[in-house]
């Protein structure tokens, strides 16, 4: 989808453009978030509840990753999300430990194919909450001839995968920006979801969030339930726009590719104060939307649709 050099303009978007309400959402009480496990297809799904019970704060729990050492984590469960995408749960040796990841950050994964001279190393962003003890979850899409994604998909329960982190991406603190915009394609949604989840779990963070998420088909929309829950819970502060290259007949969202017209309509104007736009997805998305980054430490120049719309380099971050 995104491998082409140009993006076809999206057809008129029929989904509603809700304006953000000036009314603040009710503040959450200062209760402790507790993760409750619910069985789902042999893996566990989880929801956060608030409890007055005494639970160790994440900062007081042991950390699995220290930024230096590789850790071999055991695969505890697998859930098929689509024909080529899986959610994999890797458990920690210490069930009371948390990952030690910060927001926004990623993990490196490593394995050495038989007969290869060097190991394969690829970064992934966990989709589970950083403060959840005992395990982490990765959502991985298998790409043809993608050595790491195919290897991870081939793993059986109780086999292990080497990981190291955290790999810092964009350090977040509450209310760092007034409004952020997440422009994602495919599995590029994972760091976006990590950032949005951190914002909305913090009752002191009032940041507004707009998501534009492009995929090929409806079944390719990863984390759709989690995103819909955010939108339903925080309608004054979170809105999401979905674009499909091959939508079903009943689809009422965007059609085609993420276009200049769509972004001009749903994003805040460049002149608005203290905004930040984040981009993550396949190479074609970067090329069309923002231009590519030169390296993990060099964001490169801003180009593409966002430059045409008048945004500057400091307003954009490329994951």
Automatic annotation (TrEMBL):
Q: Which domain of life is it from?
A: Eukaryota
Q: Which GO terms describe its cellular component?
A: mitochondrial outer membrane
Query: Which residues participate in FAD binding?
Result: 122-124, 139, 141, 148-149, 190
Show the InterPro entries listed in the entry: CBR-like (IPR001834), Cbr1-like_FAD-bd_dom (IPR008333), FAD-bd_FR_type (IPR017927), Flavoprot_Pyr_Nucl_cyt_Rdtase (IPR001709), FNR_nucleotide-bd (IPR039261), OxRdtase_FAD/NAD-bd (IPR001433), Riboflavin_synthase-like_b-brl (IPR017938)
What Pfam families would the database entry show? FAD_binding_6, NAD_binding_1
Provide the alphabetized UniProt keywords: FAD, Flavoprotein, Membrane, Mitochondrion, Mitochondrion outer membrane, NAD, Oxidoreductase, Transmembrane, Transmembrane helix
PROSITE patterns in UniProt? FAD_FR
Gene3D superfamilies per record: Nucleotide-binding domain of ferredoxin-NADP reductase (FNR) module, Translation factors
Catalytic activity, per the record? Answer: 2 Fe(III)-[cytochrome b5] + NADH = 2 Fe(II)-[cytochrome b5] + NAD(+) + H(+)
Membrane topology per the entry is: Single-pass membrane protein
Tell me where it resides.
Mitochondrion outer membrane
Instruction: Quote the SUPFAM superfamilies the UniProt record gives.
Output: Ferredoxin reductase-like, C-terminal NADP-linked domain (SSF52343), Riboflavin synthase domain-like (SSF63380)
Query: Is the Mitochondrion keyword given for this protein?
Result: yes
Identify the residues that the record assigns to the FAD-binding FR-type domain, covering every copy: 68-173
The molecular function terms in GO held by this entry are: cytochrome-b5 reductase activity, acting on NADH
User: Which Enzyme Commission numbers does its entry carry?
Assistant: 1.6.2.2
Q: Which ranges of the sequence are coiled-coil? A: none
Family recorded in the similarity comment: Belongs to the flavoprotein pyridine nucleotide cytochrome reductase family.
Query: What's this chain's function?
Result: May mediate the reduction of outer membrane cytochrome b5.
Q: What is this protein called?
A: NADH-cytochrome b5 reductase
Q: Which organism is it from?
A: Penicillium alfredii
